[in-house]
Amino acid sequence: MTQTSPFRPVRPRRSALYLPANNARALEKLPQLACDSAVIDLEDSVAPGAKDEARESLRRFFRDGRAAALPDGVETVIRINSLSSPWGAEDLLAARGCKPGAILIPKVETPEDIIAVEDALEQTDAALSLRLWAMIETPRGVMNAGHIARTARSDGARLDCLITGTNDLMKETGVASLPGRPWLSSWLMQIVLAARAYGLDVLDGVYNDFRDEAGLKRECDEGRAMGFDGKTLIHPAQIGPANQAFGIPAGQLAEAKAIAEAFSLPENQDRGVISLDGKMVERLHLEMAERLIEKAARIAARHDGDHTT
């Protein structure tokens, strides 16, 4: 299992809500929302003629203390435009100055897309605690997902999380949007595998009909079964179902605690494999259990009223 960087704390990312940077009303409501991550967007949700206004709105949100006043545990993420776009370089400077938890890079297709942003941040002496998320939303990005995720293994790496951009992926491939996403699921699993191979979190794409709670719940459950850590969202009404679907069931948490307790016994502390309730349990499972226990504690600290931990 990939060693977790001290700059990559274990944290819940069940729900990541997109908010346009130039939507003042949405930003004002953010402190009352129970999302784990708030993705303040300078890219797709902001029209080309409104990019400068959105960037200034973003700066005000962080400068006047509203971002710092968000409830404990809410992760702030800024989605910039691609560095190859007319707005990308200025977006990156603005995002770096705001000091969010992470910067989300859109349309990542090669490792060089990550490295270019890391180099720019290093040149401006950005703290290593400023992390990166990468959107995989093109055919080339899916094909290179493993190479992209592998950048997390390099010295000074900032990459924490992969996000699937399902709308763009369907648009670029012509794949039909059908219940269960039968033609899309194999590509999504490639992204999940890439993330898991290099110890990254991975989030499912958005569900477009925010009024269809049953459809959202079904897709969240499918995403959970596929191995995603959470889901990206377009409306506050989607937060509750996402938190519920990607929460930690009590039985799973109890099993993790039992594994941790068993390995803590004096006779097991130096053993690589033990027997627990008739099953062989390895230290790999201990590492997974410890991460799950920490994540559950962070979820519980949010007090968001979910029925799962």
UniProtKB/TrEMBL annotation:
Sorted UniProt keywords: Lyase, Magnesium, Metal-binding
Required co-factors: Mg(2+)
Keyword Metal-binding: yes
Molecular function in Gene Ontology: lyase activity
Domain HpcH/HpaI aldolase/citrate lyase: 14-236
Entries under InterPro entries matching the protein: Aldolase/citrate-lyase_domain, Citrate_lyase_beta/mcl1/mcl2, Pyrv/PenolPyrv_kinase-like_dom, Pyrv_kinase-like_dom_sf
Domain of life: Bacteria
Homology family: Belongs to the HpcH/HpaI aldolase family.
Protein name stated in the entry: HpcH/HpaI aldolase/citrate lyase family protein
